[in-house]
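Hey team,

Filing this mostly as a record. A colleague (T.K.) asked me to run one chain through the structure pipeline before their review meeting, and I want the input and output archived in the tracker in case anyone asks later how it was produced. No errors, nothing strange. Just documentation.

Input sequence:
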Amino acid sequence: MRLVLPLVLALATPVWAEMPAPKGHVLLTLGGAVSETNLPARGENDGGLLGYLEITHNGAAGFDTAMLDALDQTEITIPYGPEGNKREITFSGPLLSAVMTMAGAEGKTAKPMALDGY
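Output structure:
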């Protein structure tokens, strides 16, 4: 089974000098201490999931499928499941460091949140 894992930790180099706007559905949003933005600021009363979670930012970096696919890809395979019924699952996607570099992320901490849309 092959699943997409766009956030694999490792080192990488920047891909774009300037952050392009996403053309497709935004799959990943980095808000906070990012210097490259392509999404507008969010306030407390903007609604949606980020509004419900009370997440605000002065601008964010949004990534669609094409943007994530354009980054170098890596794979990891892990055993998954209970003893006696384990199976190997392969995740693939860009390195988190490449995504963070592309967004011009600064700082030393992150608060990841994920939704499973499948």
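Quick notes for T.K.: The helical segments are 48-52, 65-70, 96-102. The mean pLDDT is 79.
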